[in-house]
Structure formats: structure tokens, C-alpha cells
Design brief:
About 45% of the residues lie in helices and about 25% in strands. The chain is α+β, with helices and mostly antiparallel strands.
Length: about 600
């Protein structure tokens, strides 16, 4: 062989992935003249099995035989032909191949045979189908993604956009062609160093931020944008992939929720009642009002045991109400207990609570109202009612006693005097009838004397009922008169007076009250105090009138029982209090056993009254 033929033969024999097949030139009946080792490998036949057999053996069914003819018959105008066809292995398997046909000429230029070159492309076809599938799958995923996506090159050109992105941007298919990224869904970071594309090319690998974008149609969309590198086949960054998640609805829902929470928080925190949430006996939440009620302005209530805020006297009662709630015997509980504040004060509280489900656990939701003031008022009202009942009872007794005293004084004093006057008058008449006029004159003198005595007795009774000096001379003169009369009866008791008010500065509406308080106070001193000194003061300031009476007697215990016992003895302190408070004043009593008694009555007055 010539060197050229040797080279061709070595290629023919060495290539195990390329089939070289030589046939004669008899068209569809062409027979195989040579079969390379590569052909043996690809088709599965041994060389000696195919030499001399028709080429159609390798072309499979009848549909393939015309292709066999095509590749064995040489057209001088088309000496070299390459086609993609299906060939058949010895096993009967059809497989795709690239088949090229070339004519073989002798040195004299005569056509001697044809050379067929077949390359099995089964694997490449599989790869191609896989690539097509992946590309198809990628396109579907890219376009059907719930969030908008786009690919941008380093020159800000949009290379690919998803269908969701088009809807988000308010664009039609094809509108994105030739557009720059900042022209579609542009944002505040465009044309700034913080641009996602610029940031990725500076070395950042992941960018995420919330931004408001402007669509192609001018609409504004709130998005959560993420940007990642887009790399070429060599791994170099050639652009970015942007992912747009439309959070406009979520944003509006969040704002609505935030607004609702603010309203709820405002209502709860500014409620006039204390509100608390209790889980497993501990306070999970307490509003500002509850913290204020329980003396915790810094919010230390959270985490505290609820029982630690209940007074020991009422722990059992509190526990019984809780037991009813958790046992299902009651849907809610309403009760009043004493509570302990964080600064160790005792208050009364009204609690209304119910059992609820909170995050899968049993919890207590409750309201707490400070009713300390109401309780004090109720106690004061009960005491007032009790005092009023005692007062009303003894009012009738006092009236009867006064009537009895008046009856006795009228009977024993004026009644006897009038009887004596009647007796003298009758004797005088008898003397006149008997002509004894001299003795009648003596009887008339007796009548005059008895009449004067009767008039004096009437004046005394009248002064006891209401001193005429109070109306004629005023309160200051009446006080002077009464103190003189008192000291004339009780010479062992000394009275120190201090009057810092003029007659015009004392309102007429209080004059009688002042006299009766002085009268009753001095009467109590004489009967009960065993004092030898009384200090009496009447003082007028710019805006009030004040009466003070104090003694150095034995005093008394101001407890409720003692006060009640003192009421049973007569009007006493309760009567004075009623008079002062009914006239618009304030009445204060301070006393201790062995330390005397201090009384103060105080009335507001107008400043326009002269203070001479």
C-alpha cells in the first residue's frame, strides 16, 4: 500500500466510536465490502457477519430502505451527503445517527465504491432531550412563578421577564423588549450606588429589601425585592436575577392590623378599670389602670402571683370563686375582696373575671375596679344611718323631757303663783263684801308681788328656750350673757373667752347654731368632763368663721362603740354635728382619755363681709 492508503486504513481501524462502511455501487442492492471495528462496536455485528450482505441490513424497516438507497447511490452533482437517520443494530434496536456518504474513485477517476461514515448520536439525543426538557421546565417555572422575576445584564438590559412580572409591572408581552431595568418597576435606588446590580458587581451575593416600585403604567407596588448574581458558563457574573414579591396586600393588612392593635391597646390601656390576663396563677398582662390601682407605675405586675395581691383575710373567698370557674360551675365570677397594693396599703376591689382559652391554655381574663372610696362611703352612710336612728329616737325623748321640764316649771312656778294670786283676789273680794276694805288693800299688794314673780318666771323660761338677746343684741352679747349665767351656776369651772369677730362678720344663719353648740358643749363639760377650765374662741378670717371649745377634763375614747354610747345619753356630739353640717359647716371632735376634749366648728363665709 501507498503511505496515503496506510494512513486511511489506520484511521479506519482505530476509530471505535465511528462506523466506516464500504459498499459497492449497485444502488439499493449495494453490498457491504468492508466494516470497521467502530462499526462492529456500534452495530453489534462482527465483520465476517456483514461482508457481502446488503447494506439494507443496517437500515432497518422498509421506510429506512429508501434512505439506504439514498446513501449508496452516488449523484455526481452531490458527491457528499450528510443526513440524520435511524439505523438498526443487530439486536433490532433503532438508534439515531449522523450518516455521511462519500464516493470512492480509483486513480484513474473511476467510481469504485461508496464510503459511509456513521456516528451514533443516541447519547447526544438523550442529552438534547434532557436539555429541552430542562429548558421547557425552566420556562414554565419562570413564567408560572407566583412572584415576578427578571434577568438583567451588566448594561441594565432586561434579558428575560416572567409573565407574573409583566402583570406586576402593568405590561403586555413584548413591551419589555429593549427596555432598561430602571424603565420598568424603577425604584428609589435606581441610579444610586445602592442599585442592586451595582451592589452585586461590587461583591455582594444576596440583597433583600422592601421597596415601593413604579410600574410601567404608573401604578405603585410595594414589593419585597431580592437580587442574586446571574453567572455565565464560565462562572463569571454577567448580570443579576431579581425576584419581586408583591406584598401590597400584606402591607395593607399589616397596616390595618397595626392600626387595629393601636386602637385595642389605646382602649385597654386607657380603660377606667384595671384589666389583667392571668395564666397558671401568674399575671401575664396588666394595663396601666391596674398598675396604678395596685401601686405599680413601673409595670412590675407582670409575672407576679395574683394571690400575692389578695388580702390574707379574703384568700379563701378568692380561691372559692376561682374553683367555680375552673370546675365549670360558673362561666364568670363577680365578687368584692380586699387587696394589698405593692406599697402595703389595703384597698377594696370589685373583680369580674371569666375563664378563656389563651394560646391553647386555660387563662383568666378579669376586670378590677377600686371600690375603696365607695366602701368608705357605705361605711360612713351606715354610721350616719345608725347615728340618725339614735338621734331620731332621742329627739323624741329630748322633746318629751323638755315638755316635762316646762310642765313642771309651769306647774310648780307659774301655776302656784297664779293659784296664790287667785287666792288673794278671792280674799280681797270677800273683804270688800264684808266692808273690810283695809285688809283688801294688803291682799292687792300681795297680788302685785306674785304677779311680778310670775312675770320673772315666764322670762326665765323664755330665756331657756331662746335668749331674747340673740335677736335683740346679737350673738356676741348672747355668748357673754350665757358664760356669766354658766359660771354663776358652776363656779368651779372657769371660762377663758377669745372673740376675734364683730357682730356684722357673723352670718345670721349661723348665729343660732353657734349658740346651741356652745350651750350643748358647756352642758357636756358640766355633766361629764370634770374639767375646771374651758377655752372658748370665735374667730373670723377672710373666708371662714371658726368656733373652738376645748376643756382640760377627763376626755373619752373616740371608738365607734364609745361614740354610740355617748349618743344614747342625749343629743351630745351627734346633735352638735348635725346642727353644724346642716348649716353648711364642718364639725371636728378630738379627744383622748385623760387629755380633755377639743371641738371645732368651721363655716365658709363670703369675703365681702366686713371684718371690723
Amino acid at each position: 500500500m501507498e503511505p496515503k492508503e496506510d494512513y486511511s486504513r489506520s484511521v479506519f481501524d482505530a476509530a471505535d466510536d465511528i462506523a466506516f462502511i464500504t459498499t459497492d455501487i449497485h444502488g439499493s442492492d449495494a453490498r457491504i465490502l468492508d466494516f470497521s471495528p467502530g462499526a462492529e462496536h456500534i452495530f453489534g455485528y462482527r465483520r465476517d457477519e456483514v461482508i457481502g450482505r446488503k447494506f439494507s441490513l443496517l437500515c432497518g424497516d422498509r421506510n429506512q430502505s429508501f434512505k439506504c438507497k439514498l446513501f449508496t447511490q452516488v449523484d455526481p452533482k452531490k458527491p457528499g451527503v450528510t443526513r440524520e437517520v435511524f439505523l438498526t443494530r443487530k439486536s433490532g434496536e433503532n438508534f439515531p445517527a449522523i450518516f455521511s456518504r462519500y464516493p470512492v474513485y480509483s486513480n484513474g477517476g473511476k467510481l469504485m465504491a461508496t464510503l459511509g461514515v456513521a456516528v451514533d448520536i443516541t447519547q447526544s439525543k438523550r442529552i438534547e432531550r434532557a436539555i429541552k426538557f430542562v429548558n421547557s421546565e425552566f420556562r414554565q417555572l419562570f413564567n408560572m412563578a407566583a412572584d415576578g422575576m427578571r434577568v438583567i445584564d451588566k448594561d441594565f438590559n432586561m434579558l428575560r421577564v416572567s409573565e407574573t412580572f409583566l402583570k406586576l409591572a402593568g405590561m403586555k408581552k413584548g413591551d419589555a423588549a429593549g427596555k432598561k431595568c430602571y424603565q420598568v418597576l424603577g425604584g428609589p435606588l435606581c441610579h444610586t450606588p445602592s442599585c442592586p446590580l451595582e451592589s452585586i458587581f461590587r461583591g455582594e451575593r444576596y440583597i433583600e429589601y422592601e421597596v415601593e416600585k413604579t410600574g410601567f403604567d404608573g401604578t405603585r407596588v410595594t414589593c419585597l425585592l431580592t437580587a442574586t448574581p446571574f453567572k455565565g458558563l464560565d462562572g463569571e457574573i454577567i448580570g443579576i436575577v431579581e425576584h419581586f414579591k408583591d406584598i401590597s396586600i400584606r402591607k395593607r393588612a399589616y397596616e390595618a392590623l397595626k392600626k387595629s392593635e393601636m386602637k385595642y391597646n389605646t382602649v385597654v390601656q386607657n380603660s377606667l378599670t384595671g384589666i389583667f390576663l392571668e395564666i397558671d396563677g401568674k399575671i401575664e398582662f396588666a394595663n396601666h389602670r391596674l398598675a396604678e390601682i395596685l401601686g405599680s407605675p413601673d409595670g412590675r405586675l407582670a409575672g407576679m402571683q395574683m394571690q400575692s395581691l389578695i388580702h390574707p383575710d379574703h384568700l379563701a373567698y378568692h380561691g372559692s370563686n376561682r374553683k367555680k370557674l375552673f370546675s365549670g360551675d360558673a362561666k364568670s365570677a363577680e365578687y368584692e375582696v380586699k387587696c394589698l397594693t405593692l406599697n402595703n396599703q389595703t384597698i377594696w376591689a370589685k373583680i369580674l373575671e371569666s375563664k378563656i382559652d389563651y394560646e391553647g391554655s386555660d387563662a383568666i381574663l378579669g376586670n378590677l375596679v377600686d371600690i375603696t372610696a365607695r366602701r368608705k362611703m357605705e361605711k360612713a352612710l351606715r354610721e350616719s344611718e345608725k347615728s340618725l336612728k339614735v338621734l331620731s329616737s332621742h329627739l323624741f325623748t329630748a322633746q318629751e323631757d323638755e315638755r316635762k321640764r316646762l310642765a313642771i316649771e309651769l306647774h310648780d312656778g307659774i301655776g302656784q303663783t297664779l293659784s296664790a294670786i287667785k287666792f288673794c283676789a278671792e280674799n280681797c273680794l270677800k273683804q270688800e263684801e264684808n266692808g273690810q276694805s283695809g285688809q283688801g288693800h294688803d291682799f292687792l299688794n300681795k297680788i302685785v308681788s306674785l304677779t311680778k314673780s310670775a312675770i320673772e318666771e315666764v322670762r326665765k323660761i323664755s330665756m331657756d328656750l331662746r335668749p331674747s338677746t340673740l335677736d335683740d343684741l346679737g350673738i356676741l352679747a348672747t355668748i357673754e350673757w350665757f358664760c356669766r349665767e354658766f359660771q354663776s351656776l358652776y363656779s368651779s369651772i372657769r371660762i377663758e373667752k377669745r372673740i376675734d369677730a364683730c357682730e356684722e362678720s357673723v352670718p345670721n344663719s349661723t348665729k343660732t347654731v353657734i349658740f346651741r353648740v356652745i350651750q350643748e358643749a358647756l352642758s357636756n363639760v358640766a355633766r361629764h368632763s370634770r374639767a375646771d377650765l374651758v377655752r372658748l374662741s370665735l374667730r373670723r378670717s377672710e373666708d371662714h368663721l371658726e368656733l373652738i371649745i376645748e376643756d382640760n377634763g377627763i376626755g373619752f375614747d373616740q371608738s365607734e362603740n364609745q361614740l354610740t354610747r355617748s349618743l344614747i345619753k342625749g343629743f351630745g356630739l351627734a346633735g352638735m354635728r348635725e346642727r353644724v353640717e346642716f348649716s353648711g359647716g364642718i364639725f371636728i371632735v378630738m379627744s383622748m382619755k385623760g387629755a380633755g376634749t377639743f371641738l371645732r366648728a368651721k363655716w365658709p363665709v363670703q369675703r365681702s363681709i366686713s371684718l371690723r
